[in-house]
Design brief:
The complex is a heterotrimer of chains A (391), B (305) and C (272).
Chain A lengths: L13 H24 L3 H20 L1 H13 L1 H14 L8 H27 L6 H19 L3 H20 L7 H21 L9 E2 L5 E2 L2 E2 L4 E3 L2 E3 L2 H23 L2 H11 L1 H5 L5 H27 L1 E2 L6 H14 L4 H17 L1 H4 L2 H15 L15
Antiparallel strand pairs in A: 1-6, 2-3, 4-5
Helix pairs in contact in A: 1-3, 1-4, 2-3, 5-9, 5-10, 5-12, 5-13, 5-14, 6-7, 6-8, 6-12, 7-12, 9-12, 10-12, 13-14, 13-16
Chain B lengths: L1 H32 L6 H5 L1 H17 L5 H25 L9 H22 L7 E2 L7 E4 L2 E4 H23 L1 H11 L1 H6 L4 H27 L1 E2 L3 H16 L4 H21 L3 H19 L14
Antiparallel strand pairs in B: 1-4, 2-3
Helix pairs in contact in B: 1-6, 1-9, 1-10, 1-11, 3-4, 3-9, 4-9, 6-7, 6-9, 7-9, 10-11, 10-12, 11-12
Chain C lengths: L12 E10 L2 E11 L4 E5 L6 H8 L7 E6 L2 E2 L5 H7 L1 E3 L12 H8 L8 H6 L1 H22 L1 H5 L10 H13 L5 E5 L7 H17 L4 E5 L3 H6 L3 E6 L2 E6 L1 H6 L1 H17 L1
Parallel strand pairs in C: 3-8, 3-9, 6-7, 7-8
Antiparallel strand pairs in C: 1-2, 1-4, 4-5, 9-10
Helix pairs in contact in C: 3-5, 3-7, 5-7
Classes of the chains: A mainly alpha (391), B mainly alpha (305), C alpha/beta (272).
């Protein structure tokens, strides 16, 4: 359920609002930077405690949250421009660490996948355990296009998203007749089938997968070479960092626009009560299939970037466990809350990497995280919010 | 040719019997608790690991290789422990979702399955590797000109016994009556001073213990077991229950035979079929769900408005 | 709109020989009914008489085993529920089924779903249009809420699940009206309400009708005060069959009706 704290009155003027937006974004970026660069596990735990402390403080003092929310609401354009600037500048403060950039890319791809799944799991309450499969379909489709027909990355990107979407539609068809557990079975089965096919078909390279996927090029600049900006050289990962950041941006845009439209409302209605939704004129089947398609579309994009980033893909990159990982991110972050889902994706990507001793237990950790959140805080770290109208 | 056919039929029935032991658990739990226990397959495949660990422990304790008697004891203990594991999972996790939206219980039990698998991987010695599973029953019998491993016959017989026992229990005993009462109307059952909580625990024990028997036979049949075999086993068991019609016991058995039949057929007829068996099984499941959502024997439930 | 020749002579909504079987169980047998523009029809009958079945058939949740439902002459059976709403039939539910985790306002806006057109491409690439449409719907929803109940309007930014029972019913009516229906079906609107809430509800329904003289209403009710004062005509169902039809004054005098319904229910009502 949504928290119903009466919004505390915002106490800031315009200048104060701008400052608060800037401060919040800088604080978030600084936190992420520390988290990426830190090595000592004790420091990681310390940072986590700081994060938890900040959340608790917000819960205890709704005035802070209300002010931040108000400031962002009043200065949306500034928040967006400033945020974009931070994202653009971010690689320059990472001490040229290609590892930190690599983690960021993976985290951003997972953020896209989590946002994709959120359309179903968060908005419409459809259990989909096949996002990992759509991710894989996108990756394989683009890699095959590039390897067999020399299709450039920039063409393969939309093409593979279309392929993934078509499969998403197909997967969505059984949702016309089935719900909940049955539908979950269908999606799990779909994931397993895709994995088995990738593992056994000849043209997908079987268990060895596909190798030698060429790095993308843009205006003669290869994404495999270091990125030089204003005489400052960034590791080659920076290319993909910017690319995946762009995709995250697009996904956020998608999420926001769909949420604030008739479609988002229809999904929410289906989540709350499917039968009542149908009696408001909502074509349940269409909106469910649509959710599957949107999920697959974004996952397909993410898959393509992944394939061209690592240059080598195999079926094991796209197992059922990947789907469960994505689901964990959505549930822990906060269903139907864009910010929450992204935070969930970053936290759950970075944590196992940062707590090395722990990374072997990553799967166990994900499983327990999901169960714990469902039992203790089903709304996730950032609960869903009610819509506001008229500015 | 006929020999081969008979051999395949035997494989089919054996496999179907083993699947049935798992599928009835799905159906029973769904019928009584109205939830899909997605980790049921993982619970079932806990049994062979428990049995292996127990055999090892006993062997170390007596300082000699385990005799068949000791192995049988280990197996019996493993079945009981697995039954208790089911009860424990319900107590710790699943019961919290009794009145929650279906999706929450669903995701929670999927996660539970992952946790169980990973626990085996981390706690069992060499947990990531496959482990050889000896068959308790060796030897073979000649029937109709075919050499039939005694193991298969025992698997079929035990499965038949278990299933008949379940039918008897549900159909002709006081406990069965109580289980039916609870499955139809919890509140009404409470008025008749039947405690639903107790019935749920018993149901979990029965389903998990029967599943454990299925898991043990599955491991014995394959000759080896690995921590993640339970993914396929769980999916197949659930699929069988769905194909037959969730909540229907005869449906679960027929569903198991149908799926085992398809499985056997694909492996025998399609080149490299073993690699694709799940593809065919799931296509069947999806087909059934699309054209007959309630399964072959399930009744369509009209939502109350 | 293609107006019928004489609005009074032709039924807006009519059902003929409606029969509904679930397996061997006959929930409804050969029931006829008709509803004219601006008319209020009450439906009474004991529990299990088939009242809700009738509503579910009209709204497309059930497909009748035989018989037909027509709205302005157009055959409705077999059409999915969401399309029937678009044609102008809206309903409420006996156990109010609101979208509990959405705001009161969102609930009403969703009621306007059939009047909005934003598709996936508009939502993503034509934000201005999509937002304008949604804002217009929000404005309309606010006005509707205000008209139905000022109290409810004051709570428009609260989650619907937090509303008290009487306000939930009002919200359900507002949500149903948002689709600008020709026919509004109310399934036991007063259930779970005390007498004063029911009085308020009756006033609300009267004002809804006064503002929309063309709107036809079908009300399933147990509360005899409501049935006595609101509907022009009453249809009595028992065991899935039509027992009687007429004004409340006529119907209440029929012995079989008293026996089948009023006797039992009347006694219960007196106690309540």
């Amino acid at each position: 359920m949504t928290d119903m704290t009466i919004p505390a009155r915002a106490t800031l003027g315009t200048a104060g609002g701008l400052a608060l937006v800037a401060l919040t974004e800088i604080a978030g970026a600084a936190f992420l930077r520390q988290f990426l660069l830190v090595d000592d596990w004790r420091a990681v735990v310390g940072l986590l405690a700081l994060f938890a402390g900040a959340l608790v403080a917000m819960q205890r003092l709704p005035v802070i949250e209300a002010n931040i929310e108000q400031a962002f609401g009043a200065n949306r354009r500034f928040a967006m421009l400033f945020g974009t600037a931070i994202v653009l500048a971010f690689p320059f403060v990472l001490q040229n660490s290609s590892y930190a950039l690599h983690l960021l890319i993976i985290a951003q791809l997972y953020a896209v996948l989590a946002l994709a799944l959120n359309f179903q799991l968060g908005s419409a309450n459809i259990p989909n355990f096949a996002t990992g499969a759509s991710y894989g379909i996108g990756a394989y489709a683009s890699a095959l296009l590039a390897l067999n027909w020399d299709v450039s990355f920039w063409l393969a990107l939309p093409a593979s998203a279309v392929v993934a979407t078509i499969f998403g539609f197909l997967l969505g068809i059984p949702s016309m007749r089935t719900r909940d557990s049955y539908l979950a079975l269908v999606t799990i089965a779909f994931g397993v089938v895709v994995h088995q096919l990738l593992n056994n078909l000849e043209f997908t390279g079987g268990p060895n997968g596909l190798v030698g996927i060429p790095a993308p090029e843009l205006f003669g600049h290869s994404f495999a070479s270091p990125l030089v900006i204003f005489g400052h050289s960034l590791p080659s990962q920076a290319n993909f960092y910017y690319l995946s950041a762009l995709l995250v941006g697009v996904s956020i845009l998608f999420a926001g626009r769909l949420h604030h439209s008739r479609i988002g409302l229809a999904w929410n209605a289906l989540r709350a009560d499917e039968l009542a939704a149908r009696c408001q004129g909502i074509n349940a089947t269409w909106y469910k299939v649509l959710a599957f398609a949107v999920d697959a579309f974004l996952a397909g994009f993410a898959g393509t970037i992944y394939a061209f980033y690592v240059g080598f893909i195999s079926p094991d990159n796209f197992t059922f466990l990947v789907s469960v990982t994505i689901m964990t991110m959505v549930i822990a972050g906060g269903m139907d809350n864009t910010l929450g889902v992204i935070v969930g994706a970053f936290l759950l990507t970075l944590l196992p990497e940062k707590l090395r001793a722990f990374s072997d237990y990553r799967i166990l950790f994900f499983g327990i995280t999901v169960i714990a959140f469902l039992m203790i805080r089903p709304q996730g770290i950032f609960p869903q919010r009610l819509r506001r109208y008229g500015g | 040719m006929t020999e081969q056919l008979l051999q395949q039929i035997l494989n089919w029935i054996t496999l179907g019997s083993i699947y049935a032991l798992i599928a009835v658990g799905f159906s029973l739990l769904f019928g009584v608790l109205n939830i899909i226990h997605f980790s049921h397959g993982d619970v079932a495949l806990m049994a062979p690991f428990l049995a292996l660990a127990l055999v090892q422990t006993f062997a170390t304790a007596i300082g000699a290789a385990a005799s068949p008697g000791v192995m049988l004891l280990a197996v019996a203990l493993a079945i009981a422990l697995t039954g208790l594991l089911g009860v424990l999972l319900d107590f710790v996790v699943i019961q919290r979702f009794r009145n929650a939206p279906a999706m929450m219980a669903l995701v929670a039990t999927v996660a539970l399955g992952i946790v169980l698998r990973d626990l085996i991987r981390h706690l069992f010695p060499n947990g990531s590797n496959p482990h050889a599973v000896p068959r308790l029953v060796q030897g073979s019998v000649d029937m109709l000109g075919v050499t039939v491993p005694a193991f298969n016959l025992v698997a079929i017989a035990v499965s038949g016994l278990c299933v008949s026992g379940l039918f008897y229990l549900l159909g002709s005993t006081r406990l069965g009556l109580h289980i039916k009462a609870v499955s139809q109307d919890r509140d009404a059952a409470r008025l008749l001073s039947i405690a639903p909580g107790r019935i749920f625990r018993i149901t979990f024990f029965i389903a998990s213990a029967v599943g454990a028997i299925g898991g043990l036979f599955f491991a014995g049949y394959a000759g080896i077991v690995r921590f993640d075999f339970s993914v396929d086993v769980g999916l197949i068991g659930f699929s069988a229950a769905v194909v037959g019609g969730l909540g229907s016991m005869p449906g679960a058995i027929i569903g198991s035979l149908v799926i085992a039949g398809l499985d056997t057929l694909v492996q025998a007829v399609v080149p490299n079929g073993a690699a694709y068996r799940l593809v065919f099984v799931f296509l069947l499941v999806i087909g059934v769900l699309v054209f007959r959502p309630a399964g072959l024997f399930g009744r369509t439930v009209v939502e109350k408005v | 709109m293609n107006a019928p020749v004489t609005p009074e002579s032709r039924a807006l909504l009519e059902g003929k020989d409606l029969t509904m079987r679930f397996g061997g169980l006959v929930a409804m047998a050969e029931v006829d009914f008709s509803l004219r523009k601006g008319e209020v029809l009450g439906i009474i009958g004991p529990n299990g008489a088939g009242k809700s079945t009738l509503l579910n058939i009209i709204t497309g949740l059930y497909v009748p085993s035989s018989g037909e439902v027509r709205l302005e002459g157009e055959l409705l059976n077999g059409q999915p529920a969401h399309r029937i709403v678009a044609k102008g039939i809206a309903r409420t539910f006996q156990s109010s089924r609101l979208f509990a985790d959405l705001s009161v306002l969102d609930n009403v806006i969703i009621g306007r779903h059939t009047h909005m057109k934003t598709g996936i491409f508009d939502a993503i690439f034509n934000r201005r249009k999509a937002e304008a449409e949604l804002d217009a719907a929000a404005e309309l929803a606010e006005r509707l809420l205000k008209a139905v109940s000022r109290e409810l309007h004051a709570q428009r930014h609260r989650p619907a699940g937090e509303l008290p029972q009487a306000d939930r019913r009002r919200l359900e009516i507002a949500r149903a009206l948002a689709s600008e229906p020709k026919v509004l079906l109310l399934d036991e609107p007063s259930s779970g309400m005390d007498d004063s809430d029911t009085d308020a509800l009756m006033d609300d329904i009267r004002s809804v009708c006064a503002e929309r003289p063309e709107l036809a209403l079908m009300i399933i009710e147990h509360d005899m005060r409501l049935i006595a004062s609101l509907p022009q005509r009453v249809l009595v169902l028992d065991y899935g069959q039509k027992l009687a039809e007429g004004t409340y004054e006529e119907v209440r005098l029929i012995p079989r009706v008293q026996e089948a319904y009023l006797g039992r229910k009347g006694a219960q009502h007196a106690q309540a």
